Amino acid sequence: MSVSPASPVSARAAATVLLLRDRPQGMEVFMVVRHHEIDFASGALVFPGGRVDPDDAAIAEALGGASHATPIHVAAVRETFEECGVLLARRRGEQGLVGAEVVQRLEAPRAALCRREAAFADILAAEDLVPATDLLVHFAHWITPRTQPKRFDTHFFLTVAPEDHLALHDGGEAVDSVWIRPADALDDAANGRRKMIFPTRLNLMKLARETTAEASIGAARSAPVITVEPEFVRAVPGGRELRIPLAAGYGGEIFLAHDMPASGGAPPR
């Protein structure tokens, strides 16, 4: 199904987080495998993320203009906590992130949050926590093509994963998880060992240029983020050619997509 580009569906705000860590074999990124029964990108290897909720705006407003405190940044922190149990938050007035003991204590509220039976604002308030939105470094911005029936306006962020937080999939939308080098994830996708959608593949290509978390974050801080809204060029054997802005920094303008660009019921991640 498609819609007329002259009257596109509004794109819903969303956030995606690339959690990074350094290991002797190189930098790794945390990724989850979507449930096989989910309509969009079932079984695909993706980054944690999801839609911005109305409550995210209220949390951002309550932060009172703190650095980077927008609803999209709050959504990034919330979705990271929901999907993989990593909580990018601090005690009010402190600089260091909360430790693993706090995250473990919040496991039951996290499960309730995933079931939409608890509010993120209440979980934060109970521990006097504030989201560490300043640690999120803007990496990419993708918008679903205007011809798609469901559209998302998704911002991708980089951050270093807290060493003592155990990243683990939620068991609901995500049924598996892995720390993996970007180049290895791309190789798995190229050889059919993993399913991967177009935005994920290109953002892994971009991430794979650096070998450490520090270098990746430094490169992201110094490069402008150019909005990507893929445009169909033509059908070719094996897929379709899509055009993205050359200035977006993906090393080209025309790319072969073996799958649908971001569409369906979930944002690109």
Question: How would you characterize the overall build of this protein?
Answer:
Keywords: Hydrolase, Magnesium, Manganese, Metal-binding. It comes from Teichococcus rhizosphaerae. The protein is built from eight helices and 13 strands. The two termini are 21 Å apart. The chain is of the alpha+beta class and 269 residues long. It is globular. The protein has a single domain (12-223), classed as Alpha-Beta Complex (Nucleoside Triphosphate Pyrophosphohydrolase). Helix content is 28%, strand content 28%. Strands 1, 2, 3, 4, 7, 8, 9 and 10 form an eight-stranded mixed beta sheet that branches. A three-stranded antiparallel beta sheet has the order 11-12-13, with no helix packed on it. Strands 5-6 form a two-stranded antiparallel sheet.
Work out the helicity level.
Answer: 25-40%
Written as H for each helix and E for each strand, in order along the chain, the element string is EEEEHHEHHHEEEEHHHEEEE
Number of discrete domains: 1
**Tally of strands:** 13
Number of helices: 8
From the 3D coordinates, which CATH architecture would you assign? Answer: Alpha-Beta Complex
- How would you name the CATH homologous superfamily? Nucleoside Triphosphate Pyrophosphohydrolase
What portion of the residues fall into strands of 2 or more residues? 25-35%
Q: Could you say which structural class the secondary elements and strand pairing correspond to?
A: alpha+beta
Unreliable residue runs: 35-42, 260-264
